[in-house]
């Protein structure tokens, strides 16, 4: 019996994990899931209700009411959405509510999933685990360029400060803190372009399947 391939792609914001995961999924013919959208959509539901994303009860209620259409919203990016997503992601009840969704998605016929705890919690037995990172300065600059391209004028120093705050919250939270799995391949993208990162990752995946 052939075991469905799961590729876990974890890492902090603006390290390049989303771009890499989408390219790997397309190349390998696997479904792709940006698990961060689940948390962003949950955070948005909490904000819509006028509640605090850091309130465990409100956050868990929003997660359990999540609808696939929530992930199609056009307001899931930006500083407010980032903070809300980071808040709800620290709530154990939210992570439990969304865990089954992620596992069911991957087990159907394999998948490439990107997030912050795919290799450590969601699929600890994933066939390939990648942890994509970059220097804080490089990540802040990339996010600033991304926001500027969308017409969102922000000071780069403010973007850097917000990302540093989120990095700290993600690293110290009790529920699934952001860290590489013990058996993850760490890819530092600071000095690499997207094509170089993709080539490295694809070679790791192909080697694991031999």
From TrEMBL:
<comment type="similarity">
    <text>Belongs to the cytidylate kinase family. Type 1 subfamily.</text>
</comment>
<keyword id="KW-0963">Cytoplasm</keyword>
<keyword id="KW-0547">Nucleotide-binding</keyword>
<keyword id="KW-0067">ATP-binding</keyword>
<feature type="binding site">
    <location>
        <begin position="11"/>
        <end position="19"/>
    </location>
    <ligand>
        <name>ATP</name>
    </ligand>
</feature>
<dbReference type="InterPro" id="IPR003136">
    <property type="entry name" value="Cytidylate_kin"/>
</dbReference>
<keyword id="KW-0808">Transferase</keyword>
<dbReference type="GO" id="GO:0005524">
    <property type="term" value="F:ATP binding"/>
</dbReference>
<keyword id="KW-0418">Kinase</keyword>
<feature type="domain" description="Cytidylate kinase">
    <location>
        <begin position="7"/>
        <end position="206"/>
    </location>
</feature>
<dbReference type="InterPro" id="IPR027417">
    <property type="entry name" value="P-loop_NTPase"/>
</dbReference>
<dbReference type="GO" id="GO:0006220">
    <property type="term" value="P:pyrimidine nucleotide metabolic process"/>
</dbReference>
<dbReference type="Pfam" id="PF02224">
    <property type="entry name" value="Cytidylate_kin"/>
</dbReference>
<dbReference type="GO" id="GO:0036430">
    <property type="term" value="F:CMP kinase activity"/>
</dbReference>
<dbReference type="GO" id="GO:0005737">
    <property type="term" value="C:cytoplasm"/>
</dbReference>
<dbReference type="GO" id="GO:0036431">
    <property type="term" value="F:dCMP kinase activity"/>
</dbReference>
<dbReference type="InterPro" id="IPR011994">
    <property type="entry name" value="Cytidylate_kinase_dom"/>
</dbReference>
<protein>
    <recommendedName>
        <fullName>Cytidylate kinase</fullName>
        <ecNumber>2.7.4.25</ecNumber>
    </recommendedName>
</protein>
């Amino acid at each position: 019996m052939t075991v469905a391939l799961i590729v876990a792609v974890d890492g902090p914001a603006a390290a390049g994990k989303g771009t890499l995961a989408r390219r790997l999924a397309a190349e390998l013919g696997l479904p792709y899931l940006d698990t961060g959208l689940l948390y962003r959509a949950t955070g948005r539901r909490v904000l819509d209700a006028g509640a605090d994303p850091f309130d465990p009860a409100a956050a868990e209620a929003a997660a359990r009411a999540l609808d696939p259409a929530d992930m199609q919203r056009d307001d899931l990016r930006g500083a407010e959405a980032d903070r809300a997503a980071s808040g709800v992601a620290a709530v154990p009840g939210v992570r439990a509510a969304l865990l089954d969704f992620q596992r069911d998605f991957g087990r159907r016929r394999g998948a490439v999933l990107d997030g912050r705890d795919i290799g450590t919690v969601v699929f600890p037995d994933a066939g390939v685990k990648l942890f994509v990172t970059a220097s804080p300065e490089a990540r802040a600059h990339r996010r600033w360029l991304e926001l500027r391209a969308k017409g969102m004028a922000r000071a780069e120093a403010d973007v850097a400060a917000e990302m540093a705050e989120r990095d700290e919250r993600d690293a110290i939270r009790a529920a699934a803190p952001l860290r590489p799995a013990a058996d993850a391949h760490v890819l530092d993208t600071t000095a690499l372009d997207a094509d170089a990162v993709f080539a490295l990752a694809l070679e790791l995946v192909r080697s694991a399947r031999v």
